[in-house]
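This is your field. Pick holes in the following sequence-structure pair:
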Amino acid sequence: MRRAFRILLKTLLGLVVVLLLATGGALLALRVPSVQTRLAQKAAAVLTAKLGQVVEVAGIDVRPFSHVLLDGVRVRDRRGGELFSIGRADADIQLFSVFNPRHLHVGTLTLTEPRFALRDVAGQPDSTTLDQFLSAIRRLSGPPDTTKKASQPFDFQLHDIAIRNGHFELERPDRPRDPAYGRSIDYAHMQVDSIYADISALNFRSDTLQARVAGLRAVEVPSRTRLHELTATIQYNAHFWDFKDLRLQVGRSVIKPYLRFEYKRFGNFSDFNDSMRVITRLR
């Protein structure tokens, strides 16, 4: 009896050692450059399939049970141009299992040096690169298909986004620069840099994007206009942009608590005075 017990104990200890070695080997393998290259290629393929846009990933660093870091992320538009890029994306993983990879819950996604250029895309189903970007995000986090019971939908949840040192530009080549360019904001030729913001309460599951934005700050470079703070509950869709519980400080001016823009298309911001309807409540 004792002999059988010792054999069983040694067997169990052996299995534990093998599992520990296998786990350790797998964790070490994740640090090998060739393995990380294959993971980057796989990540790009998965994101391409989910977003419906070509995604390129230069490198990936997997820190098991906590973070996945993607370096040099580029998403192409439908014509092959750059839709947006991210210097580094750091995903704080809350739920993921290799045994059930249909679920991915991200706590905070930190985007370092994201870059986005807003431009018209002639002859495309979506009229601007912003429309393409939002459509891609909706495909990633869209509502589950309850009509299909055979295959489970991909359960992706993103709780918060942190933007660090972002860059945004809007160029209308069909519009000449305003004579006051460099002294005031030219809404047809904008270069916005040093963008920082914390975004929560995200909802992409309808035609209207909803989010809570806190502490957004940025600089419009040509005019040197400084946005000190934008904090608000935001709703955005193709025809309006709504800011509730708003605190907006540009220079010495402060606007609160409500602001709404209505337009036929987002590009109407370039013709702000003629094409935008502004609704506000001030106090």
Summary: DSSP finds four helices and twelve strands in the chain.
